[in-house]
Amino acid sequence: MEPIRFTAAGQPAAGWRAGPSAAPxxxxxxxxPTSAALWSRLPPLxxxxxxxxxxxxxxxxxxxxxxxxxxxxxxxLADALxxxxxxxxxxxxxxxxxxxxxxxxxAEHGAASLTxxxxxxxxxxxxxxxxxxxxxxxxxYERHSGGLYLHHGICAAARPxxxxxxxxxxxxxxxxxxxxxxxxxxxxxxxxxLTGRLAEVPTLCLWGRADRFNxxxxxxxxxxxxxxxxxxxxxxxxxxxxxxxxxxxxxxxxFWSDATLSxxxx
Length: 266
Prior knowledge:
alpha/beta, Rossmann fold
């Protein structure tokens, strides 16, 4: 993996890239409260793909946006892709909130394919917005911040390595309030319209079967609404790309092959 630095939305940003420059490009977008390192176990398993993983605003080495709403994140992504000279159609893979950003980008700009992990596309996202309102925000944000996700979102075998990499992020100044503001800025109108705008995008819902935050039923529900495929990885939890990278990479390969064949059909 090679670290990358660039400018997006007028501020510095970071991430990493791996794989041959001439290979098909996949952009990887993590969820909260992780970083591009969520995908760090995939390059050896997808060595023939060009992988670009970005630290989203407020995570890793990318500073936060002034207003952390979904349209601002999507504009940031478009600017980041332009700065990296990445043009459509791209394969987009997003986990949690990163999946929501990827989905909105695909709706606005198209995509070769879209893979969503622990990321429904409809009004289920209003539940995080509810937890960000008083008095619930004191438990979910002020008290626990991202700690609940980190400790319960990874399988036991991968937990030591995962916590070694990410546990310190919960001590980041302003993380709790940033997460809360991101949730509060979720728009019911945007969420309601999103599913219909993805009708032409080949989509895979690739979930951990043991995800406690977005259980398998939400994966199946999302796949049905999008007319996409659904794959559940045994023992996988919320951060399944880190916990079960072999199974995750294998499912991506299979989906990309099918999506390419489907797009080539007359």
